[in-house]
Amino acid sequence: MATRPCTYSTWPEISMTNAIKAVEEEGLTVRLAAELYGIPKSTLYDRIRGNVQHGTKPGPVPYLTKEEEVILAKFLIKCSQIGFPRTVSEVLALVKQTIQSKGLSDVSISYGWWQKFCSRHSELSLRTAVPLSLSRAMATDNSVIQKYFDILEDTLKENSLFNNPTRIFNCDETGLPLNPKSLKVVSGRGAKNVSQITGEGKSQITVLACTCAAGVPLPPFVIFDRKTFNDQLMVGEIPGTLYGSSPNGWIS
């Protein structure tokens, strides 16, 4: 496994010693001494001020520059906001691909790198994603919701239903996945209801509920994931419940 190269301390230590002596004993400026002995001015200045102790081993070159880390953090938050959040393993694979493009091959990016990356970017955190189909994600757009209520208001006016709640019904379905599996994904810190857009074809049981504005419910309608219906599935259910089946348990 390759290790990150170290590009620091490319000068002989004797040059550093002579440069410090030239400044402290001979009165040369830091700039002139650095140029004379081939040492970066900032490094020489830090050594003279005691910011860096003699014999300190330099750390490895960072995998990503500060600018690249900022871009990555913004990218991960944006992915989460649009419904396609990334898992930690996907982030590590992306970082590995980036540093390989710089010519450093066979590098293993550990979870420890991720932890340090998060400590430097406190705006990131891990959340459990809620699977959400693309059609539902599009329906949560503010313009779509506003248009729905505009149409609903026009419909109630046209049919004189504003003061007749027993004739106003609303129904909605909820899916109960048969193989739920939500992963931890990267999101912005403090984000709520993180969704992950998925396909429409996963098997589940669907329950359709309906009630009127006066508070009177209708019996639920349950759709099972099967081709043929088994009467044993009705044992212990709410009286009056309706049943159906579809290949994947969705309303088709």
From TrEMBL:
UniProt xrefs under Pfam families: HTH_psq
Looking up InterPro entries in the UniProt record yields: CenT-Element_Derived, Homeodomain-like_sf, HTH_Psq
- Report the gene name: 109582160
Q: Which GO terms describe its cellular component?
A: nucleus
Q: Name one GO molecular function term.
A: DNA binding
Which residue ranges does the record assign to the HTH psq-type domain? Answer: 16-54
Protein name, per record: HTH psq-type domain-containing protein
